[in-house]
Amino acid sequence: MMLKSLLTHATDKANLLEGMRAASASAIMLLVGCALHAPDFAWAAIGAFWTSLATASDTARNRLASMLSFAVLSTVAGGLTTYAASLGTAAGALAILVVVTGAGLARVWGAKAYQVAILAATACVVMVDRPWHGGSGGMAYLGVYLFGCLFATALSVVIWQIRPFAPEHYATSWHAAGARSVREGWRHLRNHASLSSDGVHFALRLGIATTVAYLTVHMLDLSNGYWATMAVLLILQPSASGTLPRSVERAVGTVVGTIIAVAISGLATSPLAIALAVFPLIGLTMTLRPVGYGVFVAFLTPSFVLVADYAMPVFNEYNYALARLETNLLGSAIAIVATLTLWPLTERFRK
Questions:
Q1: Neighbours of 336 (CB within 10 A)
Q2: Under a CB-based contact definition with an 8 Å cutoff, are residues 223 and 200 in contact?
Q3: What's the whole-number mean pLDDT along residues 29-42?
Q4: CA pair distance 52, 25, nearest whole angstrom
Q5: How far is it, in rounded angstroms, from Cα 167 to Cα 23?
Q6: Per-residue model confidence as pLDDT tens digits over 146-180
Q7: Rounded CA gap, 232 and 235, in Å?
Q8: Helix (H, G, I), strand (E, B) or coil at 96
Q9: Which of 163, 178, 171 lies closest to 289 in space, CA to CA?
């Protein structure tokens, strides 16, 4: 009965065409990389996927604005954080603090701006530890990444247009609880001082928690520590009532996704096989996104893992999967502690 209800829910709300479009954008980038023997095209696939997630799906004008804004913002901010991190861990931590806090403050401009900003911050925490050896060559991957973003934009706006979605679809995207809080805030502008205080507290909480995660993985010398910083960014909500269930959903979704990733990695051992496997995974990630955050993470995890494997193959996928799970749980724990300890009184009972 529960399975039937879930399938009905998915049928009602999922958008297969959006999933296919996002999957096509990412898979095509990987196939181009195969043809050119250029593993760095994994960054183009990641850029295409994130740009698809950043899309404001109400009007064609907003769709173009959101995708281009994300492409430029994530590329510039990602390059700056990468350069900062090359100067040392402290400089990298400061860059993360500034970028993520700024993304948190974007909530005051509305849900669409916040979604673009938080995804751009996510790109930064993934890029920040990429080796930089100085000179223009150290940033060459950014050009490939930007190309993927622009390709996804062209595919969405020019080549493969899809009818605008219902508002409820947008509300189920990343940080949906934060988006609802923004709408409620604008309906209560007469209490502007309180809104500003809560907004600043949330932005600082998000920035501090993500920076703590970044410093923790560096102190513990954990590989692929960006899974911890990503977890903080995508779990932490304005209140404990939103953060706690989201952390559980991410943990469960990560476990399921890790199992899927290990199984597929055993079969997809070549760049071409990985590119072909990514298509259905990203399609399901985007299509089932409205069903629930846990389902979204369950397919997001193997999608991201395979794209990362495309650029840098892993010889012991099982140990690598366990490491990803550990860093995800670390990030979840940091997000929960931050929610309960950093300015908890102002929003403790807020839904």
A1: 20
A2: no
A3: 87
A4: 9
A5: 22
A6: 999 999 999 888 876 666 544 444 334 444 434 44
A7: 5
A8: helix
A9: 171
Q: Cα separation of 294 and 10, whole Å?
A: 13
pLDDT higher for 102 or 15?
102
Which of 26-35, 71-80, 319-328, 334-343 has the weakest average pLDDT?
Answer: 319-328
For all residues of the chain together, what is the average pLDDT? 78
| Backbone φ, ψ for residue 172 (5° rounding) | -95, 5
Residue 317, pLDDT above cutoff 70: no
Helix 41-53 crosses helix 271-287 at what angle (to 10 degrees)?
10
Angle at 195 between CA 193 and CA 199, to 5 degrees: 120
Cα distances (angstroms) measured from residue 191 to each of 113, 186, 205, 348: 21, 9, 21, 18
Which residues, 6+ apart, have CB-to-CB distance to 1 below 8 Å? none
pLDDT at 121: 94
User: What's the angle, vertex CA 151, arms to CA 307 and CA 57, rounded to 5?
Assistant: 95
Residue 102 CA neighbour count, 13 Å, CB half = 16
Q: How many residues does the chain have?
A: 351
Q: What is the pLDDT of residue 226?
A: 86
Q: In the 3-class helix/strand/coil scheme, how is 7-58 assigned residue by residue?
A: HHHHHHHCCHHHHHHHHHHHHHHHHHHHHHCCCCHHHHHHHHHHHHHCCCCC
> Using N-to-C axis directions, what is the helix angle for 60-86 and 140-154, rounded to 10°?
170
